[in-house]
Amino acid sequence: xxxxxxxxxxxxxxxxxxxxxxxxxxxWLSLLMVLVSVSxxxxxxxxxxxxxxxxxxxxxxxxxxxxxxxxxxxxxEGHVRVDIFYRGFSPRAQAWVDLLGSLLLxxxxxxxxxxxxxxxxAQSWSLHEGSREAGxxxxxxxxKSLILMMAGLLVLQGLAIAIRCLLQLMGLSDGxxxxxxx
Length: 182
What we know:
With 182 residues, this protein is mainly alpha-helical. It is 74% helix and 0% strand. It has helices at residues 2-26, 28-45, 52-75, 91-127, 140-169. The longest helix is centred in the middle third of the chain and has 37 residues, at 91-127. The two termini are 30 Å apart.
């Protein structure tokens, strides 16, 4: 049983490492968004210049930041949670809530998002969809692909949470349900 627990712990750690790396990497887009937004304003109001592609790049970065960063935020318990009761629960009760929430809510919703978005993204790929604006960014199909990536990354994080909670409930872990490092 210890061998299986160790394997599951490593699997959860691997899923979390993916989300940790992607989240930290994509977080740099927030700084880049600010710099590009300031540039757009300066170019427009000081030099009377503007490019659609530059403005659209802020939208692309914003979407990427949120879609790719959603699982990272879940890993670090940054999503909104109604914890009026939860915070008073024992670690075991919290593990049950997290396990059931992951299995019965998070994973089904992510799978639904993935399935329902598949045709939407596939159609965009088939057209190699670009901006509707003249001079806008190409690659809208790549941006739309991040919807599928978000769902997949949230599934990985949900599985990591479920594994850690299950191990805790079985008495095979240290009681840390999410394994979040700060």
